[in-house]
Amino acid sequence: MRQLQTEQRQAEWQLDEVRKEIKSEKLEAAKTEAKAALVAKVGSLLGSGKLKELEADNRTLQGEVAARDESIELLQQQMQRQQEEHSRQLIELQAQHRREMADKEAEHQKEVSFLKSIIRKAKKWFPLFQELVYMEKFCLKVGFTERQTVTLISGKPLFYEGELYSEEYRRRFTTERAGFQVVKDPTDKSKLVLAINGQLIGEWFKEQFDRLFSSIRKTVTPQRKDKGLGL
User: Fold this and answer.
1) Computed over its alpha carbons, how large is the radius of gyration of the chain?
2) Chain Cα centroid distance, residue 231
3) CA gap 48, 35 in Å, rounded
4) Tens digits of per-residue pLDDT, 124-146?
5) What angle do CA 175, 178, 182 make, to 5 degrees?
6) CA–CA gap between residue 160 and residue 148 (Å, rounded)
7) Which of 67, 94, 177, 220 could form a disulfide with 161 if both were Cys (CB 3.0 to 4.6 A apart)?
8) Contact in structure between 193 and 183 (CB atoms under 8 Å)
9) CB 148 within 8 Å of CB 156
């Protein structure tokens, strides 16, 4: 019985070993078959048009990328040229503007110089020329219109009724119809003055102010006396 049991164990062990060997052989065979299938598949791909088609698509994509890169480079170059052209045009416009301004300034200075020479000659030929300019400003400031001022400056008499402004007293005075005329200053023949009814306008303004001040004082003084009596 012991011998039979020993032989049985040996037989089982041998059987296990055989099974292991069979499994190992099967695994190797499966690996071999998988490798063969993979090689066959790669071979079929290499032999078919799919791989060539993929390679063609890849080349097409590479060509498109290269064309895109070339277009981008061309656009960048075009933008650079446009910026350079814009800068050049801007510099030319600025230079042209400076030249035009310089020409205008030179022309203006020329006109100013010409006018100054005319004024100098006018002062020399007409001693009262500058006085007429001052008198024109004075008449306009007093309140005469430009047309009325032209009449006065020409030496003609002007009849006027209305308000006259005194810059010295900073107020307006009303006059009835009176005759105005620009005449030479009695105290200095090189000066011109404005006369109202033969009286110098400065004296007339003073009389009007004194009269106004006197009337105001007469009005205020009795009121103060009445308040004093009431106290």
Assistant:
1) 60
2) 73
3) 20
4) 777 788 889 999 999 999 999 99
5) 110
6) 9
7) 177
8) yes
9) no
